[in-house]
Design a protein that fits this description.
The chain is an alpha/beta fold. About 50% of the residues lie in helices and about 10% in strands. The strands form two sheets. A five-stranded mixed β-sheet has the order 3-2-1-4-5. A two-stranded antiparallel sheet has the order 6-7. Helix 9 (about 135-150) crosses helix 13 (about 320-340) and helix 12 (about 280-310) packs across helix 15. The protein is elongated, with a radius of gyration of 29 Å.
Length: about 400
């Protein structure tokens, strides 16, 4: 009886050991198969990303040895990069799978910022970062929307009286334009025509585009952006179909407040535009000059945006939805960096005046070709009160609100 029990225990022991051996063998076979599939799935030069990719070599070296060059590459300091990464990492980091390791959030952000800051296309980005082109085409809109989501509170129309007051004081101090709360402008973002889109995005400049409508405050920041209008809509509805228009019509601005725009916009009680035509009186010419001074805020904001994010210099060859993500992310980064970095906008990169009111052009004008402006909106009958409002400013600029050099600037 005892010998039978011993035999049974020995048999169970052998069976247990055999099971363990078979299980280990099976695990090893599965791991080998996974490794084999991974090798087949990922090209060798991509698989070497962590050793020879741009993130592991050049950017790492610039970060520690030459922060100024790192800032030129990323459009922000290493500290700003780390701060931004901490804000969006959880929303863009994916989990590893059996077939592949997830791309680190850090590399995804670096790729996206390089794309925004340069004219480097997906193929060059793929080679530099050792990331597949299809992966890049998917991650860029993902990261752009994550950036915009994290930073969109920096694009904000004032809600409190003291916030409006800061903008008003800025326009009055810098450009001698009282009761002004912003400069409005619209620009064409040039794109590659989507398949089968016909003339849907074809604009008066004979290119394909979407439109960025923006209200800019006294400090070159966007208070409002509207993106995605088709390029062929520029003749009459970009502003009128925007949410900003509805809010302005409902009394958005403080009492008697105005914003300034060019001839593309309608004359309203709250929106001043230049006097039309060439046969103008001296007072009307002065008024147009004074209005154009205040409007330089929006021109410079768009100019800085393009000079910092060179993706806008050429037709953006992505899906239209991705273009919207790119525009939103770039505008949010523009505002965020304006507030975070003292060197993002310097005194020499924007237009300024000498003591005689002579304009010294900002350096961005020699660095880029500016974005095309939207064409004149549909003409309509201006209200009498809107005309009277413009005339009040005209009279003010010739009397109590005059500046010593204004007559010299109109001749």
């Amino acid at each position: 009886m005892n010998s039978r029990k011993q035999l049974k225990r020995r048999f169970n022991y052998l069976l247990k050991n055999l099971s363990i051996l078979l299980l280990n063998e099976l695990i090893e076979m599965v791991e080998n198969e996974i490794t084999k599939n991974k090798r087949q799935w990922v090209r060798k030069w991509i698989d070497d990303r962590n050793e020879t990719g741009g993130s592991a070599l050049l950017l790492k070296q610039l970060r520690f040895e030459d922060p100024a060059e790192y800032k030129l590459a990323m459009r922000m300091s290493p500290q700003n990069f780390d701060e931004l990464l901490s804000m969006i990492s959880s929303s863009i980091q994916r989990h590893d799978t059996f077939m592949r390791d997830a791309l680190p959030a850090k590399i995804k952000l670096e790729i996206t910022l390089t794309f925004l800051a340069s004219v480097m296309n997906y193929r060059f980005l793929s080679h530099f970062y050792r990331v597949s082109k299809p992966a890049i085409s998917q991650l860029i809109p993902e990261v752009c929307w994550a950036i915009y989501t994290a930073l969109k509170t920096h694009i904000k129309i004032p809600e409190r009286e003291e916030e409006w007051k800061i903008i008003e004081d800025g326009f009055n101090t810098k450009w001698n334009f009282p009761s002004c709360y912003g400069a409005i402008d619209g620009k064409h973002i040039i794109i590659k025509a989507p398949p089968n889109s016909g003339s849907e995005f074809y604009n008066y400049k004979k290119t394909n585009s979407t439109v960025l409508l923006a209200l800019v405050d006294h400090d070159y920041c966007f208070s409002y952006i509207g993106v995605g209008a088709n390029g062929n809509a520029s003749d009459g509805g970009v502003f009128k179909n925007s949410s900003l228009y509805r809010r302005l019509e409902d009394g958005l601005l403080p009492t008697n407040g105005v914003i300034v725009g060019d001839a593309a916009f309608p004359l309203k009680n709250y929106l001043l535009k230049p006097y039309p035509g060439t046969q103008l009186s001296t007072a009307e010419k002065v008024s147009n000059y004074r209005l154009s001074r205040a409007r330089r805020i929006s021109e410079n904001a768009f100019g800085i945006l393009v000079s910092r994010f060179r993706v806008f210099e050429k037709a953006i060859p992505t899906h239209v939805d991705t273009v919207d993500a790119i525009v939103c992310a770039a505008c949010a980064l523009h505002n965020w960096l304006r507030k975070r970095s003292s060197s993002y906008i310097t005194s020499t990169c924007v237009d300024r005046e000498d003591n005689d009111g002579q304009i010294i052009e900002g350096t961005w004008r020699s660095e880029i070709n500016p974005l095309p402006s939207i064409s004149e909106q549909q003409r309509g009958n201006h209200s009498m009160t809107a005309k009277e409002k413009r005339d009040l400013y005209r009279n003010f600029f010739m009397t109590a609100g005059s500046v010593p050099w204004q007559l010299d600037r109109i001749h």
